[in-house]
Design brief:
There is one protein chain. This protein is an alpha/beta fold. It is built from eight helices and seven strands. Strands 3-2-1-4-5-7-6 form a seven-stranded mixed beta sheet, sandwiched between helices. Helix 4 links the parallel strand 1 and strand 2. Helix 6 packs across helix 8.
């Protein structure tokens, strides 16, 4: 499915009926050949936007997966690059692709870092956290950053109701909710639980000064709203 080197439909079904950690362990060998990998267009747009705020010292990729975000950090940071994820399978692929980085297995809701990084990024992971889990995630990132450190991550916006994408994402989220209501362990992955105002409020509550900028190079919806925003959260000095 997706490409000759990607997972089959059967493999995706097995993954979807696993836990988040177990599912990504299973998917890891073929993950980079799926549409789930963060597109280069988003990585490039994020790099361009953050280049106006750098350069930075040490960098952290939160929920790093197979390491798609490492080139972003490498282009912006002068110091050591670290990736953290809780999937052994994904980390194994990341180590193979980027042996010069540091890789840490940990639950990002309890990050084992303190005052160690100048820039933290995350790509495509926020949908794996329920709104009630965001405070712990953001508090851990805040703790991991040095004073004046920056946390940045792109967030897709909700498409207008007149678009096909609106109904596709809504249908996906409803399907996942039905799956999690009747099947254990749950697989948390939602597209419509991270609206920008609520996420900014949680970042502020965690101690950040938070804002959002439109990533105009990624285009706009038919109603004129941006397809993607970059959220910027600065730790106080």
């Amino acid at each position: 499915m997706f490409s000759p080197r990607g997972p089959s439909l059967r493999e995706l079904c097995v993954q979807a009926l696993s836990s988040v950690e177990g599912g990504y362990d299973l998917l890891a060998p073929k993950f980079d050949y799926t549409p789930f990998r963060t597109p280069e267009s988003i990585l490039d747009a994020t790099t361009a936007a953050l280049s106006e705020h750098g350069p930075f010292g040490r960098g952290l990729d939160v929920c790093c997966g197979t390491g798609a975000g490492l080139p972003v950090l490498r282009s912006l940071c002068r110091g050591q690059i670290t990736g953290v994820d809780f999937s052994d399978g994904m980390l194994a692929r990341a180590r193979d692709a980027h042996p010069d980085a540091t890789w840490v297995r940990a639950d990002v809701r309890a990050l084992p870092f303190a005052n160690g990084f100048d820039l933290a990024v995350s790509f495509g992971a926020l949908g794996h956290f329920l709104p009630a889990e965001r405070p712990a995630l953001f508090a851990g990132v805040h703790r991991a950053l040095r004073p004046s450190g920056l946390f940045a991550f792109p967030v897709g916006t909700v498409p207008p109701a007149t678009s096909v994408a609106h109904w596709v994402t809504l249908g996906f989220d409803l399907t996942m909710r039905a799956r999690n209501a009747v099947w254990r362990p749950p697989f948390v992955m939602y597209y419509r639980t991270n609206r920008t105002p609520e996420v900014l409020a949680d970042l502020t509550a965690a101690g950040f000064t938070a804002s959002a900028i439109d990533l105009d190079t990624l285009g706009r919806h038919s109603d004129g709203s941006p397809r993607c925003r970059l959220l910027l959260a600065r730790k106080a000095t």
